[in-house]
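Data deposition worksheet. Section B asks for the primary sequence of the deposited chain exactly as it was used as input, without tags or linkers unless they were present during the calculation. Section C holds the resulting structure in token form. Section D is free text for depositor observations; keep each observation to a single sentence. Incomplete worksheets are returned to the depositor.
Section A, Depositor: J.P.
Section B:
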Amino acid sequence: MRTAITLLIALLSVTFTTNSYANSTHPSPQPSKEDGWLKNGKSIPDSNNIKSKNGFGVQMWIINDKSFFDNWNKPETPKVPITQTAIRNKPVFIIFVFINPGVDKESKANVTADVTIKSPDGKIYGDFKDIEIWQQIYKVPQNSIQLAVGNLGVKIEDGEQLGTYKVNAKIKDKIKNVTLELKTDFTAKEK
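Section C:
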């Protein structure tokens, strides 16, 4: 049932900083060509689920453990339980993490996502517009990774198709006028 897709609103505003995917040593408040996703100090090329432009970057992941959202608020670096498999009647979550959104003169960011999920037969399983990534005051240090406010929970229920579900997301930073298109997939299995 398409009612199994829920918009998960996680009101999480704690900063998570890591040196493995974001350049956390760059002191400038303005993005530069060194900003974006980095690993060991070197730029990571764009991939299907990781992109950046003009310093703004987004990653989209599928996870299978809801406790991740609680762990995000802890001081320790959370383990991201990435999966490519959805077991029937058990939820998976489509999450977004991001860095360096544009802000207006009131320090407010305006980043949203449009997400389309296609079932194994190619038909639209779910279509969501203007999911809030971040639409509030954003006073976070440069290159600090943030978890999106809105994330999606998906549960493949009895009677729904098993197989590969394709997830396409269009992330829009309306202040920087940047759009990043991400994609990933997951495979629904019985057990």
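Section D:
The chain has one domain: 2-189.
Confidence is low (pLDDT under 50) at residues 1-33.
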